[in-house]
Amino acid sequence: MPRLFAGLEVPDEISQTLSLLRGGLPGARWIEPEDYHVTLRFIGDIDPSSANEIASLLLRINRKPFEVTVQGLASFGGKKPRAVVASVLPTRPLLELQAELERIMQRLGLGPDARKFTPHITLARLRDVSPQDVANYLSLRGYYPTRTFTASRFALFSSRASTGGGPYVVEDSYALTA
Q1: CA–CA dist 122, 67 (Å, integer)
Q2: Which of 6, 75, 128, 175 could serve as a FRET partner for 100 with CA atoms 20 to 30 Å apart?
Q3: Where is this motif: HXTX 2 (predicted)?
């Protein structure tokens, strides 16, 4: 049973600049640069028939390419930090694509995504890392100059059923060409 999610691939040029931020945070499990992505909708463990139905419905999405802006670093989890991320500007085209994916998944009978959509690229997953260590990391390494890329497609990814998920495989991609 595949574990699926829809997302945007991160171009190699941006992945390489983000990968330079790896290290310097004890307890961080750094994501491999080839696995960087912007999750639009986590789908979960799906039977093959449902996966095929999802893939065919995604073909119907008709949207234009849009700019994606990666802007700065942050952490998720507050007093119990769980990830270091590169923030992605929540532009209207990005939010509209994510909302359309959410509607499609709910029409298929999947429950609403439990988390509020906050676009980002996960750089590291954290376990038992103190908020002070994360704050120190962000103050020392947290500057990331704004980078922009054009999203000309989105992808249906699969992942292993494991902690952290990767490596991720693009099962299919959908052009943004409206």
Answers
A1: 19
A2: 75
A3: 120-123
Q: What does the DSSP assignment read for 69-92?
A: EEEEEEEESTTS--EEEEEE---H
DSSP letter string over 98-121?
HHHHHHHHHHTTPPPPSSPP--EE
> Could you tell me the pTM of the whole model?
0.93
- Identify the CATH number of the domain in which residue 49 sits: 3.90.1140.10
Burial 43-68 (b: 16+ CB within 10 A, else e): beebeeebbeebeeebeebebeebeb
pLDDT band at 164 (very low <50, low <70, confident <90, very high): low
Range of the domain at 125: 3-175
- How far apart are alpha carbons 20 and 22 in whole angstroms? 6
In what helix (H) or strand (E) does residue 57 lie, and over which residues does it extend? helix 48-58
Beta bridge partners of 85: 74, 122
Question: Is-contact 64 174, C-beta < 8 A?
Answer: no
Q: Which pLDDT score is estimated for 165?
A: 57
Q: Which positions are annotated as active-site residues?
A: 37, 120
SS3 21: coil
Mean per-residue pLDDT, 14-30: 95
Would you give the DSSP letter of residue 160?
Answer: -
